[in-house]
Amino acid sequence: MNVAALTALVDRWRPETHTFHLRAGEMTPTLQDVSMILGLPIQGEPLCMNTASDGWRRQMEDLIGMAPPPPEDKKDRAPAGAAFSWIRLNFGQCPQGANRDTLRTYTHVYLWYMISRTLFPDSGGKLAHWCWLKALTVLEHRWSWGTAALAYLYRQLDEACRRTWSGGIGGYLLLLSVWSWDRLSVGRPRILNERPWPHHRNNLDREPTWAYLWDNVSEMTSDPKIMYMHYIKELDTLTAEQVNWEPYGTYYRIGAGMPDLNHKCTEEARFWHSPTTILSQSISQEQEASHRSAYQLKPRGKAPNRYTPDDYVNRGKKVVIQEDEAPPRRSYLRRMRNDEPLSSEEEEQEEQQQQEPRQRTKRMAVRKQPARRGRRG
Q1: Residue 228 to residue 243: CA distance in whole angstroms
Q2: pTM of the full predicted structure?
Q3: Phi-psi region of 371 (alpha: psi -120 to 50; beta: other; left: phi over 0)
Q4: How many C-beta atoms surround the C-beta of residue 7 within 10 A?
Q5: How many C-beta neighbours within 10 Å does residue 37 have?
Q6: Beta bridge pairs of residue 44
Q7: Per-residue pLDDT for the chain (377 aa), expressed as one digit of tens each?
Q8: Alpha carbons 6 and 40: distance in angstroms, whole number
Q9: Which GO terms are recorded in the biological process aspect for this UniProt protein (predicted)?
Q10: CA-based Rg of the chain, rounded to a whole angstrom?
């Protein structure tokens, strides 16, 4: 993996929105990427359980027959899980002629080891947490592993972008790497000769996913610090036209760019087809707007409505007629213009109108005056 490119990308992650803030816009891995790259199931019950670690050694012994020994010093805090080296030492090889219960135990441990190394690794990369073994208690249970892997990656990105003194990031970084290679040209490796895939025609579940397109790529051999600064500048200048918004194909041709694609990649496409369509429509509108000249004014939408007295009649409102109005109040300027004398009532109203504003401004002026302070000494 390109460490410098991943670090430059993580620096633009915002935990408030769970998106990468780039010049081209906000981007993030979605369930569509989980299906196409990993082929994990999305449909199923959410992987929500109690993560309390009280008595985890006793529960692990009940499930797999043994547990890591406690630390010699009781003051040392041991994490709730087993090291990968301990799992390989004790469950590396299933004994010959094992019974059904032993095979089931080794299956539990193998799946626990596999998902802890791939889907849910921590920033240290040396420990298999106890909670994932607890989720594999019932193998026949259908969990939504795709949403769990994506949510775990979001959480690891939230923690990684806040770290200042210690580095490291967990989560399935293969998903993040292939996602960035498909869409962004920053840190994208060069694809080498394609390796032949051993097809199993009798078992279609063994067909490759979209990640197989990046199976054999070139490695970055330059100085990571220099390349990190270079990738930062490229991300700062990345425009929307340089982003591949639909790497898997259009709405009706998802996955058509790769022959022999695993059917698990598009099996649950109904969960992410609608957002893809909306995104493609918005992107096409933005691209059309970007080609519009800034010096040429074009009409947008319809012209404003012109209301007539008939509109008020149709809405059931009464049309104002001159006869229904009260006699208009003639102002002082109108009297001067028409040389018409005012009546006694109109003169009183005119004087009240002239006095009210003066009194209001006088009161406001008094309120705005600062309090006088006497001099000391």
Answers
A1: 20
A2: 0.69
A3: beta
A4: 18
A5: 25
A6: none
A7: 889 999 999 999 999 999 999 998 999 999 999 999 999 999 988 888 777 777 888 888 888 888 888 877 776 777 788 899 999 999 989 988 889 999 999 999 999 999 999 999 988 888 898 888 888 887 778 889 999 999 999 999 998 888 766 677 889 999 999 999 999 999 999 999 888 888 887 888 889 999 999 999 998 888 999 999 999 999 999 999 999 999 998 877 888 888 889 999 999 888 886 544 444 444 455 554 444 444 444 444 555 555 565 655 555 555 555 444 445 444 555 555 555 566 677 677 777 766 665 555 445 544 555 555 655 55
A8: 23
A9: meristem maintenance
A10: 36
Amino acid of residue 81: G
Q: Which residue has the tokens 């939230």?
A: 158
Residue type, 345: E
